[in-house]
Amino acid sequence: MPPSRAPVSARVPWSSWADLTALDDAPSSGRAPRGPLPLRTVLLGTIGTVLVLLGSIGAGGTLVHDPILGSGPLSAFRYGHGKYLASAVVYLGFGLLVWAWVRLGRGVLAAQVGSRSVLLAAAAWIAPLLIAPPLFTRDVYSYLAQGLLALHGFDPYSVGPSALTGPIPDNVHPFWQTTPAPYGPLFIGLSKGVVLLAGGNVIAGVILMRLLLLVGLAMLIHALPGLVRYLGGNLPVALWLAVAGPLTVVHLVGGPHNDLLMIGLLALGTLLALQGRHASGIALVTLAMAIKATAGLVLPFLVWVWASRLSGPRLHRFVKAVVPAVLLYGAVFGACTALAEVGMGWLHGLSAPSLITTYTSVPTGLGQLLHSTTEAFLDVNAGVFIGVCRTLGGLALVVLLLWQWWQARDGGADAVQRAALVLFAGAMLAPTMFPWYLSWSMALAAALPWTRRTLSVAAGASVVLVLAYYPDGETGLYHWPSMAAAVGFALLAAVSLIRFDPLGLGETFGGNHSHGAAIRSGTNGR
Predict the structure, then answer these.
(1) What is the CA radius of gyration of the chain?
(2) Which of 84, 81, 78, 85 lies closest to 64, judged by CA?
(3) How far is CA 216 from the centre of its chain?
(4) DSSP of 275-320, one letter per residue?
(5) How many other CB atoms are found less than 10 A from the CB of residue 512?
(6) Count of CB atoms within 10 A of residue 123's CB?
(7) In 10 A of CB 37, how many CB atoms?
(8) 3-state secondary structure (DSSP) of residue 469
(9) Are 38 and 236 within 8 A, CB to CB?
(10) I need a surface site. Which of 254, 376, 388, 479 has the fewest CB within 10 A?
(11) Residue 518 has what pLDDT?
């Protein structure tokens, strides 16, 4: 989580809502005029995502029975040296994308790139991936399979995709074939709609699902200017982090992952609550929870935001806020459950991700470390260590949630900042932490003030978390040479954001440093 001191920009906060498209020109916004669109940077990133698209045809989450690569000369890209070549193209494209993103970030830090330019860059980078096979994951096939189960009268919270046969369940990752859905009723209903439209065409289903989830990105973009206004951040920085970053472009859109729809509803609902439209805010965040349960961590904090605007003693204000909030939550969530025609079995399905053990989760990683250090003289199964640490991690999250919730009792922006912290802890302390889980807190934290140092850390983390998985969705976390290369590349990206030409290549090839000087002089953050 970013500290709230030493912000990147000391610009005057907005005094009123400013339209996003006119933000950088608004005379009352207290912002510098909009700089020119960095065309070379945008083109560099676009070339990168086009290469990712081309490489993903062979190296991404391709179909088991692929109509493009199933036969003919292109089928060579699915196997052996052909797949290695396709993977190399994906990684080359990702490298160019990260290079462009870091260049764009330098311009943002130097106040030379405005919010519109960041959005245009993000749109150019995302566009090629809209028709790509799933990238660095196969989860979207599970989404479609769960919708298909519900459409055929099965309870997706009781059975897994293996209950059906056909092209959709055939493409679900073997690990998840017998696993019930861990998602809320609203998402199951939306998945049913996507499958209904796509029929048995898996490629059409993936593209339709991706377009549906882009609604979440649109809501996030719409919410960020207002969140920045309330939380004191910097809009170009917020957009650069939460919209143009690799986690969003490659994982949330390229994946795609339903977290994108969840964080859009979460961000917009939080903004409405800060604006005093409390019922609407609670309703939208409840819809976010009906996509993924994690969004529910924010609801108790929004009750304090509501109570802070009421009159009377704190206890009375809390009761007057919590009663309608609970009733509204029940009505909205109940309506989602009824419309999707599913039951409450999703609560049981929440444990599904914990079947995977990765050291990116703090308690799971700690359990693995303890087992490794003691197995020489203690004959105890690794599952015991992991189970104990996960239990302690869950207790730590409950304690942190209660503590932060009580500290947020004055409501306002402080309550939202504490909610972002709890979302971050929820990702890190979960039994399993997938890279895209960090988008939960980023949806709110991006609107906070950031220092150059914390932006650098966020940039490096974003890069390494994408590279923790292979383009076909299999984990690379335990292939140490790959992870060493990923960490090295991430460190280079992190340092490059705040230090121009960290490898000294400009001196080697006779380049000048005027751009680097502009970066250093154009920001007053640390």
Answers:
(1) 23
(2) 78
(3) 11
(4) TT-HHHHHHHHHHHHTT-GGGGGGHHHHHHHHHTTS-S-HHHHHHH
(5) 8
(6) 15
(7) 15
(8) strand
(9) no
(10) 376
(11) 44
Residue 507, pLDDT score = 56
Evaluate whether 111 touches 523 at the Cβ level (below 8 Å): yes
Cα gap 437→202, rounded to integer Å: 26
The C-alpha atoms of residue 175 and residue 70 are separated, in whole angstroms, by 23
Structure tokens at 134: 């799933």
CB 220 within 8 A of CB 248: no
Beta pairing partners, 475: 469
- Buried-exposed string 61-92: b where 16+ CB fall within 10 A, e elsewhere: bbbeebebbeeeeeeebbeeebbeebbebbbe
Q: Which residues pair with 469 in a beta bridge?
A: 475
- Reading phi first (left if > 0) and then psi (alpha if -120 to 50, else beta), residue 80 is in left
Q: For residues 119 and 124, give the distance between their C-alpha atoms in angstroms, rounded to a whole number.
A: 9
What are 281-339's pLDDT values in tens digits? 999 999 999 999 999 999 999 999 999 999 999 999 999 999 999 999 999 999 999 99
CA dihedral over 74, 79, 85, 90, signed as positive or negative: positive
Structure token digits, residue 263: 């964080």
The 10s digit of each residue's pLDDT in 362-391 is 999 999 999 999 887 888 888 899 999 999
Cβ–Cβ < 8 Å for 328, 364:
no
pLDDT of residue 231: 97
Phi, psi of 244 (to 5 degrees): -90, -5
The reported pLDDT for the residue numbered 382 is: 87
Q: Is there a contact between 476 and 486 (Cβ–Cβ < 8 Å)?
A: yes
Which residues of the chain fall below pLDDT 50?
1-33, 509-526
Q: What is the pLDDT of residue 514?
A: 44
